[in-house]
Amino acid sequence: METKTTVIAPEELNKQAEICGEIRAHWAAAGRTPRAFVDTYGCQQNEADSEKIRGMLAACGYEMAETEEGADVIVLNTCAIREHAEQRVYGNVGALVHTKRRHPGQKIFLCGCMMGQDHVVQKIRESYRHVDGVFNPHQLWRFPELLKYVLSTNKRIFAAEDSAGSIAEGIPLLRQGGVKAWVSIMYGCNNFCSYCIVPYVRGRERSRRPEDILAEVRGLLDQGIRDITLLGQNVNSYGKDLGLGVDFADLLAEIARLPGDFWLRFMTSHPKDATKKLFDTMAASPKIAKQFHLPVQSGNDRVLKEMNRRYTREQYLSLVEYGRSVMPDLVLTSDIIVGFPGETEAEFEDTLSLIEQVRYDALFTFIYSPRKGTPAASMPDPATRQEKNAWFDRLVTAQNRISEEIHRSYVGKTVRVLVDGVEGESLTARTEGGRLVRFPGPADWIGRFMDVEITGHNTWSLTGQPK
Ligand code: SAH
Ligand code: SF4
Ligand code: F3S
Description:
- This protein is α/β, with parallel strands linked by helices.
- Helices cover 37% and strands 22% of the residues.
- It has 13 helices and 21 strands.
- Strand 15, helix 12 and strand 16 form a beta-alpha-beta unit.
- Residues 175-405 form the Radical SAM core domain.
- Residues 408-467 form the TRAM domain.
- Its cofactor is [4Fe-4S] cluster.
């Protein structure tokens, strides 16, 4: 595996921009506006990458389409986190044979985390011959060049060289509009949790420069964005590679000092790197949302050690306790893996007791899925699927009860929300903690902060009346 991060030179990116101009001219000569469909799987990092893919396509003259049917270019931005995510992609790529048959000029590209695995690229090469191009996350900035190659030669291209990763500033972005936006502050991961594929497919940790991030956030605020989420696999190690003496808490504080009314969020935080300074910074700024996604994965020390998480249950709990001592209304969420190789029922029950103790607002729960090439994939895994399913159900039932109880306690309270959309007869809005609230009102309230009295609840959302 390569270990050196590459900074993509501005000349290289200018070259890509020139290629976009050539593709635009090609379509102008053909006398029509081409259409592109970009489909995204996986997490917000992939959503953020898709905004870049759409940005590059728009610069090449493409209009975005709602479906694959009839699109001139289809891009599937894939996720490799679990078997199920990969199976969905294979199923959908398979189905595109028919779509392409109906539109023979159609070009199909696959990118994203699955394409960071050699065995997947090999399979696409051999068994999915209707796919025209493949690029892994490190090659994303070269998409215009790859597209031009495929359009002008009608040959296939595979840009999947291994690399520690790159940083490319200035790729055009096409965001989907609305009042929220994601901003990537760093890429990659150095943690190598033993079950996880991300470090292999997304390369080493590398941070964007603070001035580039600040400029992007300023631009978003000028466009009316009111809810900004800073993204990274482990935002708490932001800046370590830059050597500028700026850590994540410093970056957060600096962004929160920008003028205007907005909420600032971030994800994801690794508990081993979460600091008191970070909690204090959050507590000190009204613009930093009091929401923390702090994946614990397991409540058992032996399992945590096998997962290579590098914290204990006690350390995790004391972090939560400190966070809540400085922010009593902190909304806490987490990720849990059920059925890690070798996990016993008693160890699973430690996870159950931890969630009862912490009382998270919400949980993202996953059954362990072996990932080729990760250490956990070769650990003995005696528990049956049936047992794991039963543990999973117990966990979800317990969490649903807790979430419901927390939601019930909101009824009668007035909360500040940011209105972000319309759904049927209601407006949808989010609280500072990221909770969904529905209430009646006109669509032109979208983008406003307002007070809402909570009148009803269920497990996942709240309903209310504007004050
Ligand atoms: N960087 C983040 C999240 C990465 S992936 C973090 O460190 O927390 C999101 C979640 O997917 C993880 O938190 C984990 O709970 C889950 N996950 C990752 N690999 C998995 C696997 N092989 N099987 C099941 N769940 C997995
Ligand atoms: Fe995966 Fe662990 Fe990195 Fe998160 S911190 S992306 S779980 S290796
Ligand atoms: Fe999936 Fe890649 Fe995200 S593996 S969860 S899309 S970082």
